[in-house]
Design a protein that fits this description.
Length: about 180
Amino acid sequence: MNILVLNGSPRVRGNTSQMIAAFADGAQSAGHHVDVADVCRMNIRGCLACEFCHTQGNGTCVQKDDMREIYALLKEAEMLVIASPIYYHGLTGQMKCTIDRFYAAAYPSRPPKLKKVAMLLSSGDPDMYSGAMFSYEGDFVGYLGLEPMGVFTNQSYDPGVPEALLEQIRAFGAGL
């Protein structure tokens, strides 16, 4: 299976990156192909709401930025993993810009191979996930009709992800 992981963390070796590494290790051990797009290091601008993609562009965005790389990966992806720390009750701004730009990729329907979605989230407060869950359930499960595969949360102020959670995420990847 081709899996696209969108990393919305600006921290190169932060908790979100540790969770991604565990997932990728497990999924690759089971023979899956995993691409990780580090959206915080890419030049992805916000949606212009110009409707070019739905009128003249036939699903192609008018903007010429690094989102084109994400669009190419989405065409082959069978599963999407959204990975982000929680910033101000939701996903990071960089991740939000990326998700908003799915508007073009979802025209006239979702990418045909894309069937599943999961989330890896990290926050120091266990009550801060409602914004990210709204996006997961509304944008991906509801609007795109993807099969929900699970949400894994790291709830610690301390740097580093507990090994038990990393093992759970690794096993999830291996079990796909």
